[in-house]
Amino acid sequence: MTTVSQFRKAALSNPDVVESAVDGAPVFAVDGKEFALLDADALVCLRLPGAEAEDLVSQHATAERAGDFVRLPVKDINGQALNYWVRRAWLACAPRKVAARASAADKAGAGEVGDLPKAIGRPATRALANVGITTLDQVAGLSDTELNALHGVGPKAVRILRETLGSL
Predict the structure, then answer these.
(1) Which domain holds residue 24?
(2) Neighbours of 124 (CB within 10 A)
(3) For position 79, what pLDDT does the model report?
(4) Which pTM was predicted?
(5) pLDDT digits 0-9 by tens, 73-128
(6) In 3D, which of 44, 121, 126, 41 has the Cα closest to residue 79?
C-alpha cells in the first residue's frame, strides 16, 4: 500500500517541479502543466499520453480515465509502480530539454557523469545528473541539506563528495 507521503516524494523527485495545493490537496506541475495531483477522495491523478494511460488502466482494476488524467486510489498502487507512473506523467509534461536531461540521467552509471566520483554510487550519480549537477564545482555550491534532499543522495554520498572536495 502506498501513502500520500510516498506519492509526494515521487512527484518532487523530478526536476523543476512546483508543488501547490487545491483545497488542501497536493498538486504538482512542471513548466506550468499539472502532471500529478491527489484529489479529495485520495485518488492519485496522473496526466499521461493516450497509450500510457491505457496501459495504466489495463494494469489496475480500480484505475479509470478522467479527461487527460488517469485516476486510481493511492492505496491500490505499490510504491515502485507509483514512482514509474509519476515519472511517466512528469516526462509527458516537462519541457523537452529538461526531460532529455532527466532521461539521460536515468541511464547514468557511477563515475560516468562529469567529474563526480564513482564512489558515490549509481543512485546519487543519477539524482545529481537529474537536476543538472555534473561537476564537483556545482556540488561545492550546495549545502548538505540541499544534497540530502535529492532522492538518491544519502549521508554516505554527501560524506564522499565533501571528502573529495576537501582533497582538491
Answers:
(1) 4-99
(2) 24
(3) 87
(4) 0.78
(5) 988 998 899 999 999 999 999 999 999 988 888 888 888 989 999 999 999 998 99
(6) 44
**CA 90 to CA 47: how far, in whole Å?**
8
Banded pLDDT at 132 (limits 50, 70, 90): confident
CA–CA separation, 48 and 82 (whole Å):
13
CATH of the domain at 116: 1.10.150
Return mean pLDDT, the chain. Answer: 92
Which SS3 state, helix, strand or coil, does residue 27 take? strand
Are residues 91 and 116 both part of a single domain?
A: no
**Strands (E) located in 23-148:** 25-30, 33-38, 43-47, 64-66, 69-73
CB-CB neighbours of 35 under 10 Å: 27
Indicate which CATH number applies to the domain containing 25.
3.90.1150.30
Same domain as 155, residue 79: no
- Are 74 and 113 members of one domain? no
